[in-house]
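INTERNAL TRANSFER SHEET
From: sequence group
To: structure group
Subject: 4-carboxymuconolactone decarboxylase

Please process the attached sequence and return the structure record in the designated field. Keep the field labels unchanged so the import script can parse them.
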Amino acid sequence: MNKELFDKGLKIRREVLGAETVDAVLKSADDFFMPFQEFVTQYCWGEIWGRPGLDRKTRSLLNLAMIATLNRSSELKLHIKGALNNGVTKEEMVEVFLQVAVYAGVPAGLESFRLAREVFAQEGV
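Return from structure group:
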């Protein structure tokens, strides 16, 4: 593991998803799951999210579209919250999820809207 990239990724991951959420996942990771958490933190968050080419809001919009298309509900809820933290508005999410509905299918779009409403209620948005 590259400690520098891990630490950079951990900082970004906490800022986007919330320290409480990230710390809870890491605390609950056992010997089996920790290598994956290290991988995700180092490469996804440190290497990719830490690149200068796109701002965090743009990365969040891309993630919403891709994760919604893949129909990964747990990850989508997490990234909806992260997108709100990165300045993505409800109106922008409407546009992303409509785009998903057209290109990835209405069920994926519908599930995205449903999950977003759950997160909005939880976050008081």
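Handover comment: Residues 3-48 form one domain. The chain has a mean pLDDT of 96.
Transfer complete.
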